[in-house]
Amino acid sequence: MKRILLSFVVLGTIGSNVAQQQFENPGFENWESTSGPYIEPTDWSSIKTSDASSLNASAPQVVDRSTDAHSGTYSLYLENKSVFGIVANGIVSNGRIHADINPDNGYVFTNSADGQWNTAFTSRPDSLVGWYKYTPSGADKGKVDVILHTTTGFDFPGDENGAKHVGRARFDLPNSTISTWKRFSVPFHYNSSDAPEYILAVLTSGDSTSAVNGSKAWFDDLELIYNVAGVEDITTEEMRVSNGNNSLKLWALNGWSQDVRVELFDLQGREVGNTIWNAGVDLVWDLNGLNGIYLVKYYVEDRVLTKKVYIN
What we know:
The protein has 312 residues and is mainly β. The longest helix has 8 residues, at 231-238. Helices cover 4% and strands 43% of the residues. The N and C termini lie far apart (50 Å). The relative contact order is 0.16.
């Protein structure tokens, strides 16, 4: 259950310090309860604390605290469960969940009138990263979906394509077993230049209303990544990239003292490759089979540096 508003943290930057907004309890280390009547991480809510109070007692416990953590002591565990022939999706949100006997009528929402069920947020992050493990049933696939929005009241999916929607980052878990912790990274896509007022996040172990009984997901260490300045200013001064023969050559203008994670995205925001650029060594990255315009993203000290490249 969400109890307090978002806090601000100061993170290391390249050349400056900037206040950056992050999720509350993004590593799921803090829990309100580890037994009945509900188990929920602090600042997150489930179907056990939905706005349909008559259903909460009979709703299955689809959320639990796991000691299988990527870092720290705990992670978030979600599991789809069947009750009376209805599959309840394993789900948490930093907003509130509207539950219904008919899954098609369920949704999550920001209640701007009650700080217990909203998260104020005014920044425009560049991307969302985190860690997960997954054991799907059938053709199921879970997701991490984060929407930045304006104005009072917002429900998902009802308002996802409306005027209140400012930006969104979504990661769909693959329909395959991921038995060791795996990192995901997805960019935010912005629909307008408006500053958001709230952030609404949804994490699931199943595919919305078609969730399959028994799918299991673990999540840990969610983080919002920010650019520190204009994209071209940073990449021109700090990083260089050239292309040729289905490969990219990466080098730093004045050298670089640490390993850098590099990811490649197409213009639809899908990751098509990643690698580690070792410190002090020029990298030639073979990308055979790719051609067209892509985004190269360098992750350095909790920062992301982005540049468009043409691969042929």
